[in-house]
Amino acid sequence: MDTLEQELASILQAMKAKTSSEGLPDASVRIDRLDRCIGLLVDHQDALIDAMAEDFGTRAREASRLTDIAASIGALKHARAHVRRWMRPERVSTTPALLGLFGARARIEAQPKGVVGLIAPWNFPVFLVFGPLAGILAAGNRAMIKPSELTPRTSALLKTLIEAAFAPDEVVVVTGGSDVGQAFAAQAFDHLVFTGGARVGRMVLAAAAKTLTPVTLELGGKCPAIVSSGADLGVAAARIMNGKTLNAGQICLAPDYALVPADRVDAFADAASQAVAAMFPKLTDSPDYASIIDARSFSRLAAYVEDARAKGARILELRPEGQPPARPETRQFPPTLILDATPEMAVMQEEIFGPILPVVAYDQIENAVAHVNARDAPLAVYWFGSDRRERDFVLSHTRSGGVTINDVIFHVAQEGLPFGGVGPSGFGAYQGRDGFLEFSHRRSIFEQVPVELGPLRDLRPPFGPAIRKYLAGRIRR
């Protein structure tokens, strides 16, 4: 074990020791920790928004306040309001029921797992710390957090603020690059949460397997937006493009491509163009339009467009008339439609994570669903329309982490719904009560009748007629 791993292991062991010595935290302790997170976000929201803007280059303050500050506070307040109820033991019937009549009891208690490791990404560098942290702390755990090195100012500020609000054996932030991330993932946490890409997710899972650490993975994928033949194109296009341009499409839940009836593709493109023009009358140097996180990602997006162009796609940049094309120095990549997209194009093979929207034509809804099912199960499926039979067909014939109908992304804003993937888009779920349960161990507890009863004696040797009669009653159709 190298020095870095030893340092992390030392922090982890100190937190585990504190967990053992203090025992299960009651509701007041958990609520106090949630309150401290809320206070941190309220008191330092402007500093956090400034840091995110500096890390991105351009990021709308209102968008950051919505997606990172308000969304985090919403998750924390929801946990605070419900944690006492979530903590209540769950009574279950005894087996056989006769034992319950004599005073035996069975119940399930949600026990904290211990110390939870959290590896957070750069795209929502505050929310993807405090969103999972709401469930982690509500469940009574302690937390070690590794934020992204791609948002260094935000990560450093989070470290400073959390160190001021929490004791080092409660919540701790560890900053650094990929070497720190690798050493962090190798620690013997009681649970590990990772949000990010599938390639790194596989590495995290492999590292956690060595210590048998349970893992929650949120990995994204190519989320389809299916526009039905009866959908209102103006509404559908506006909502899809809002999701595609929020944070410049750097969202695991952003619609990755649109499936549109063949005879409505051009009309959809026109509606999308109008929607973007209404949101961004000025695109270049706009304070409302986020920059791509770094030059490497900007170049990757540009390569997707050129590859699609070379393979016969129609490229439609949705930028106001007179505005210059994408400039690497600002990293503000214009919203771009790729019409006539085909499977061999790179943009249809990889998660885009940017403001590029391929549009795929279909003739029957069955073909659109078949297109979705020919790929890995995505983190979300979006459907637009009013035909209930078609809606139900899409729901019953596709597999995804979540679904939003007649909009995109909004299912994650519902505090009562779990958030997570399925298959290659991830596994495990957090948010609301599901987050509390994800970071808890549901411990089974049975209290036997304290006095000796005849039926209990019959379960022990020497076996006689009584147990044979009991077993005969149990083993039958």
From TrEMBL:
Q: Which PANTHER family match?
A: ALDEHYDE DEHYDROGENASE, ALDEHYDE DEHYDROGENASE ALDX-RELATED
Domain of life according to the entry: Bacteria
- Quote the protein name from its UniProt record: Aldehyde dehydrogenase
Q: Name one Pfam family in it.
A: Aldedh
**InterPro entries per UniProt:** Ald_DH/histidinol_DH (IPR016161), Ald_DH_C (IPR016163), Ald_DH_N (IPR016162), Aldehyde_DH_dom (IPR015590), Aldehyde_DH_NAD(P) (IPR012394)
Which positions fall inside the Aldehyde dehydrogenase domain?
Answer: 14-444
Say which species the protein is native to. Answer: Brevundimonas intermedia
* Entry's family note: Belongs to the aldehyde dehydrogenase family.
| Keywords for this protein | NAD, Oxidoreductase
